[in-house]
Amino acid sequence: MTATPNLLLPARSSTATETLAEYRARGGYQGLAAVQQKGSAWLRGEVATAQLRGRGGASFPTARKWELASAAVAEQKFVVGNGGEHEPGSDKDKVLVQRHPHAVLEGLLLTGLATGASKGFLYLIEDMHGPRAAAEQAIGELRAAGMLPFPIDIHLGPGTYVAGEETAALNAIEGQPAKPRKKPPFPGEAGLWGKPTTVNNVETMAHVAWIARHGGAAFARIGTEQSKGTLLFTLPANVQRPGVYELPFGVSFRQLIDGCGGGLSFGRRVRAVLPAMSCGFLLAEHLDVPIAYETLRPLGSSPGCGGVRIVDDTTDVVAMTLGIAEFFMKEQCGQCPPCRMETNQFVHILKAVQAKKGPGFDDKIVKLAEFSRRKGNCSLIEMAAAPVVSALKAFALDFATAAGPMPPG
């Protein structure tokens, strides 16, 4: 792992919104000037060299996503910066847009130029008042300075979890219900109003701005062999210093929790970590494993969107798992029957565990998850299953104790 200063969250004495002048003083919009001089193919090559992956949680290679829209022949194309963050425990997109909107907007403009877009949208959620105000201010500054190569509109989506899924965001922008579309076609082929559209998470776009300024090779030197650059992590309230932190891939959860968060409050002990709500649990024995896609995947987990949850020695893990299952049951959009069935049944089975209705619950949950796999329009069906199935293995004794013995007869 290569030590590196923060790429997206520079040290500042203020948490106020960074102005255009402040951003340009640290090199902002040099990448935009470079691509206007060197061309879109140059930028696509730099992003491919960087090996940048999407930071919304799915970790899809950014250069490959761009290929679809850039290769498409169409009279109009669009680009969408997706800041529709509504996962409990993750604040990184809100913090990034509110404090450093120009980094996001430069990345959005660069993505649009790289893929041939002539209009852009910054997609936020209707309750993101601070990020919206910051973005409006930043767009106004760019417009006044004559620095917008194409127009950018802000669109506010509904306050639902699934509204942050990329095709649900497209539906919301079009004025339709914010529900995911069946894929294919992918947005790069047919997105907004049937036109090729590139959708990237706002953290991904801020990284694009850094790459355009410093080069793909410099970015690729940060992190691990298969996980490049830095990631924004949100630490929860049960550490001494909760908040959003930026660290390179390759650090450990121990370094994140103790070094950034100051350790757990009240001298509590870490039992397990959930890297994000839609991931698998990692036990305390994994606290020193480097955080990377290639190291966490064999453990049944992923870095996700970095919205970390920490299980300490006072956590009721059955209640915690039920709470996660109830969230997904409430937030699934209702259009895919397998997803409705799975999320409702997870809650029903876990409530039976709490009611001490005996063993057999684990087999039911695993079979249900396997049956439902890949049967929804979006990945929520897998996201809902991952923490529940993982919890059964990670906390087997807790669940067995909670369920009680087999009922007589």
CATH structural architecture of the largest domain: 3-Layer(aba) Sandwich
Instruction: Tell me the CATH topology of the largest domain.
Output: Rossmann fold
Percent range for β-strand residues:
5-15%
Return the structural class. Answer: alpha/beta
- Unreliable parts: none
Counting DSSP H or I runs of 4 or more residues, the number of helices is 17
Secondary structure: helix percent: 40-55%
Instruction: Write the element-wise H/E pattern from the N-terminal end onward.
Output: HHHHEHHEHEHEHHEEHEEHEHHHHH
Rg calc: 22 Å
Mean pLDDT: 95
What is the CATH class name of the largest domain?
Alpha Beta
Overall strand count: 9
Strand order of the largest sheet: 3-2-1-4
User: What about the largest sheet?
Assistant: 4 strands, parallel
CATH superfamily of the largest domain: NADH-ubiquinone oxidoreductase 51kDa subunit
Summary, kept brief:
With 409 residues, this protein is an alpha/beta fold. The protein has 17 helices and 9 strands. The chain has helices spanning 20-25, 30-38, 40-50, 62-71, 92-99, 101-115, 129-144, 166-173, 202-214, 216-220, 253-260, 293-296, 317-331, 337-354, 361-372, 380-394, 396-403, and strands spanning 78-82, 119-125, 152-157, 197-201, 230-235, 243-248, 270-274, 282-283, 309-312.
